Amino acid sequence: MKTKMAACLAAGLAILTTMTIQSDEAKACNDNGYIGSICWTANKFCPEGYVRADGTSYPYQQFQALLALYGNTYGGSPSQNTFAVPNLMGREPVGTGTGPGLTPRAAGYPVNGDESSLVATPSHNHGVALSVDSGISVAVQDQPGTERTPGGNVPAAPQAATAQMYANSTNAVMADGSVSANIAGQNVYSGATPASGQAQPIPVLGPQLVMLACVNYSGTFPVNPN
């Protein structure tokens, strides 16, 4: 009986151990991560074995493993025997390589450094789809016209009873400026200059949450599989 109880206890302990023990590789900012990798934490400090990913330069001899992996990709000065860690303060990471329809991106080169765009785009038009609900109409007179000049007047029915000036289908458009409308909305200057003569930036940032990025310098040295 005692032997069976001991076996049951051992089996239960083994199951409990399997359920509670996790591999370090499954945790963020763990002490056995890969050197050179970056983790994010909501803490105010980086854990032991990590330094802030803030672009700081370090002497070659201080973090030799990081130096072997980074070189001077992220800054530093070879003439002064220093290298830098990536700077993710106020930045978002972007994958290296060339995405579909995108330009090549190499490690260490900032992309879109400004938080707003000041690049002037060519002057262009944005088409507005108008419907019967748009509140725009062309005023006309369905009685015979009384004026000979268009300025200050509206289209009217012809005086002669035999004149045919209308059709129930279209195959052309009126000249530019023939019909105008005031459409209210926010002014956004893109390629054009506002009255002040100064270009106005266009915000390009989406919702963000600030966290701390940390670089691993004392974990497992990664092996290049290639």
Question: What's the assembly state of these chains?
Answer: single chain
Radius of gyration from the alpha-carbon trace, in angstroms: 35 Å
- Side by side, the strands of the main sheet go 1-9-2
Number of strands: 9
Tally of separate helices:
2
State the order of secondary-structure elements, H for helix, E for strand: HEEEHEEEEEE
- Beta content comes to 5-15%
Instruction: Give me the secondary-structure category.
Output: alpha+beta
Shape: rod-shaped
Mean of residue pLDDT?
A: 77
Largest sheet, in brief, is: 3 strands, antiparallel
Q: Please give the share of residues in helix.
A: 10-25%
List low-pLDDT spans.
Answer: 4-26
End-to-end C-alpha gap: 57 Å
Q: What would you note in describing this structure?
A:
- The protein has a domain at 25-90 and 209-216.
- Helix content is 12%, strand content 12%.
- The chain is built from two helices and nine strands; from the N terminus they run H-E-E-E-H-E-E-E-E-E-E.
- It has helices at residues 2-20, 64-70, and strands at 38-41, 50-52, 57-59, 82-84, 116-117, 141-144, 156-157, 202-203, 212-216.
- The strands form four sheets. Strands 1-9-2 form a three-stranded antiparallel sheet, with no helix packed on it. It has a two-stranded antiparallel sheet with strand order 3-4.
- The longest helix is centred in the first third of the chain and has 19 residues, at 2-20.
- It is rod-shaped and about 100 Å long.
- The model is unreliable at 4-26 (pLDDT under 50).
